[in-house]
Amino acid sequence: MGFFAALKSSMELNTRQETVVLKAPISGRIIPIEAVVDLAFANKLVGDGLAIEPAGNILVAPCDGVISKIFDVNHAFSIDTPSGVELFVHFGIDTVELGGVGFKRIAREGQQVKTGEPVLEVDLALLNNTARSTTTLVVITSMVEVSRLDKSHGVVEAGVDELMTVVMN
After folding, report:
1. CATH number of the domain that 133 lies in?
2. Residue 37 belongs to what domain range?
3. For 152-162, how does the pLDDT look when each residue is reduced to its tens digit (9 = 90+)?
4. Which residues have a Cβ under 8 Å from the Cβ of 71 and sit 6 or more positions away?
């Protein structure tokens, strides 16, 4: 291969983009992350994404990947995708203060999951009465590699409807 062909091939590799489709991790109504009452999330200090006002009680994997972390009180989990997207799913606002009441772990850390596979179960009726908010956040924490984030709106079904499309550099 000549010099210019090799250079062109190298440039094509460097401009190739990968797309990751994220499904809703819980059924409910999508709200913009900027509308969340927790300012750390609303101001995108953790990353960019969306929130869902939940209508279901099972949180599922929004994409294929490995569960890198399930927090001790089972209110949140992280998934790493093969393409490098790091995703954080957090049920409710200040729910860590409940000490795990209302949450049940279904999956385990280090587990390979497929889109739609159950990760956590929540007692939505109990949490609606005890949590500051049940707004569930879905945040891309690896935004450095993201060139575009397309967000959905409306009502979504867990594991079925598209929530966001992440285009990676």
Report:
1. 2.70.70.10
2. 17-168
3. 999 999 999 99
4. 77, 96
Query: Looking at the 3D structure of the chain, how many domains does it have?
Result: 1
Choose the catalytic residue: 90, 92, 95, 107.
90
Closest residue by Cα to residue 47 from 9, 25, 72, 78: 78
- CB-CB contact of 72 with 100 (8 Å): yes
Listed in sequence order, the residues at least 6 apart from 154 whose beta carbon sits closer than 8 Å to its beta carbon are 29, 30
Does residue 64 form part of some domain? yes
Q: Quick one: pLDDT band at residue 7, thresholds 50, 70, 90?
A: very low
Tokens of 3: 């010099």
* Residue 75 annotated among the catalytic residues of the structure: no
> What are the distances in angstroms from CA 82 to CA 30, 85, 131?
26, 8, 34
